Amino acid sequence: MEELKYLLDKFGFVKQPQVDNDFQEIESLIGFHLPEDYKYYLNNYKPFDDSIGKQYVVLYSIDDLFEMNKPGTLDEWYTYTVQIGNNGASEAIGIKFWELNNYKVVIAQYIQNIDDQIEIGTSFTDMLKRLDKEIEWFN
C-alpha cells in the first residue's frame, strides 16, 4: 500500500479521517469483492475530480457507487464491471472482475459493453502508476 499512498498524495488526493465502510452491501450488489487497494482509497480519501498528467479523472465516493451501479442501471451481461468514475467526458471508468484477486481497470463510453472496454490498469494502483507515467488511455 505504500506505493498507493505515495501516488495518492503526489496527485493531491485529499485525505479524510479513516472510515470503515461496510463494503458488503455494494459487493453484494455488484457480485464480487472490491480490490483491497481501491477499498483503501475509499476508506481514507475523499472523492477525486481533477487532472492527473494528461488525463482528467473523476472517482466516486462509496455513496456514488450505489447510485451509479444500482439495480436497474446494470445489465445482466456485465455484472462483473462496477463503474467507479469517469474521465469528465463521455467515458466511464470501471473495475472489471476477472477471477479471484484478479481485476482490470477499464474505460469505455458504454462501460456495460465489454467489447468497448479498454484496459487502463491491472489494478487501481497500476492505473495511478500509468497516469504518473503519462501513458495514454486512447491511442
Automatic annotation (TrEMBL):
Gene3D superfamilies: SMI1/KNR4-like
Stored InterPro entries: Knr4/Smi1-like_dom, Knr4/Smi1-like_sf
Pfam families registered for this protein in UniProt: SMI1_KNR4
Residues of the Knr4/Smi1-like domain: 20-129
Annotated protein name in UniProt: Knr4/Smi1-like domain-containing protein
Phylogenetic lineage: Bacteria, Pseudomonadati, Bacteroidota, Sphingobacteriia, Sphingobacteriales
